[in-house]
Amino acid sequence: MTITVRFAPSPTGLLHAGNARTALLNWLFAKKLGGRFLLRIDDTDAARSTKAFEEAIYRDLAWLGLTHDGTDRQINRLAKYSAAFYRLQAAGLVYPCFETEVELDRQRSLLAARKLPPIYNRASLEPANKARWEAEGRMPHWRFKLSRTPVSWTDLVRGPVEIDTATMSDPVLVREDGAFLYTLPSVADDIDMAINFVVRGEDHVTNTAAQIEIFQALGGPVPKFAHFPLLVGAGGEALSKRLGSLSLESLREAGIEPLAVAAYLAKIGTSDPVEPRQSLGELASEFDFAKIGRAPAHFVPEELDALNARTLHAMPYSAVAGRIPQGEAFWDAVKSNLAKLSDAAGMAILVTGPVTPVIEDAGLAEKAAALLPPEPWDEATWGAWTKAVSAETGAKGRGLFHPLRLALTGLEHGPELKKLLPLIGRDKSMARLKGETA
Q: E strands of 220-310, at which residues?
């Protein structure tokens, strides 16, 4: 059996960290086991869906490295949903409802006042009510008639789950204007695309019971389900008010590396440590539903920032070659001092200049200049040169190294000078030790 999963975002906004985590966990699970990852654009909400957001979905997933094995848009599949609806209608499993939203809100309020669950009372199934509302010219919406019996499955994250559909309202499948809502298209697509594993957030647990009944009513195989806890903020607060700042677009613009985002989203809320990884393949090989905890996963931006830095520190030059024109020696010299890749541009000035030196000890700087060895230089040059300067001046430790760093870079801290010095070169080093901007 080929494992087939899907990610079905709506093009009504930018992908955020929560969406990305859903896509990522699906992708890692499928790729670990040689399966297929399908992208399905859920664009049946014509009023809110836009082409710009759809294009952003493709762009963000590509940036994250989540290649898909097939794609489609739900707007292209309306005929399939109509066929599925008519099958349910022929089986007597959907029925028209005529209550307005105001009337439904009133019904829910009355139930809440009596401390009862807000379950639709199926008033539209009463012939007298139906006849009266039809006579008023009301346009119906359509609901799926649940069995009102327990539905159970073994969840790959949550374990055994049982939900009594008697505790649920019959889900609306089609609105008054004839537009399909999420539930029926999702099931029809999963059957048609042979989706056999549905991996998503735990906010879908309850409607899974209704969807299982629709799978069965349409004669399709019921997939296995995995519902993972949702992301929350550092203090356990909902992320809903921060989604804009947590969009993949905003993370990309902030200079966060896609591999850092992937490693962070893959590991938070699991038994694995949150540490840098070299590739998505490495993350896939480590993926296991058993590692996902039942508690919400805490998204802490400061943790992601720290992981981003550690990811850069571990990156080989081959991973950044197209973005670091200064070459491998420069990357090796500066990467351990980067928080974001954009920081490398500032450090390139230490090599190319101009740098205005800070002369803390003029006497030491003068003698150090006189002792500069001839080129070519390599990483051994720094140690041999500073040893000679120490022997000449008696300076040691901070008294030796701090004045030299200030003179050569103008900075209190920075990259290892044994790696940086050969890149600066003798001419610029000589000028800077003499207090000249170079």
A: 224-228, 231-232, 297-298
Supply the CATH number for residue 46's domain.
3.40.50.620
In angstroms, the CA 317 to CA 331 distance is 6
Burial label for 189, CB within 10 Å (0-12, 13-18, 19+), is buried
Q: Please say whether the beta carbons of 118 and 108 come within 8 A.
A: yes
Q: Does 310 lie in the same domain as 277?
A: yes
Distance CA 378, CA 383 (A): 10
The mean per-residue pLDDT over the stretch 73-92 comes to 97
With respect to residue 203, please indicate whether it lies within any of the assigned structural domains. yes
Q: Tell me how crowded residue 300 is: count the other CB atoms within 10 A of its CB.
A: 14
Structure tokens at 220: 């399709």
Contact 114, 214 (CB under 8 A): no
Same-domain pairing of 169 and 188: no
Query: Containing domain of residue 292, as a range?
Result: 240-319
What is the DSSP annotation of 38-61?
A: EEEE----TTT--HHHHHHHHHHH
Residue 267: which of 287, 247, 249 has the closest Cα? 287
Q: Tell me, yes or no, whether 355 and 414 share the same domain.
A: yes
Q: How many domains does the chain have?
A: 4
Written as six digits, the tokens of 134 are 């039809």
- Residue 72 shares a structural domain with residue 194: yes
Residue 186's SS3 state is helix
CA distance 352 to 192: 59
Which of 163, 220, 151, 159 has the alpha carbon at shortest distance from 186? 220
Q: Is the Cβ–Cβ distance between 198 and 5 less than 8 Å? A: yes
Give the DSSP per-residue string, 65-134.
T---S-EEEGGGGHHHHHHHHHHHHHTT-EEEE---HHHHHHHHHHHHHTT-------GGGSHHHHHHHH
Find the CATH number of the domain harbouring 112: 3.90.800.10
pTM of the model: 0.93
pLDDT tens profile 307-349: 999 999 999 999 999 999 999 999 999 999 999 999 999 999 9
In a domain? residue 264? yes
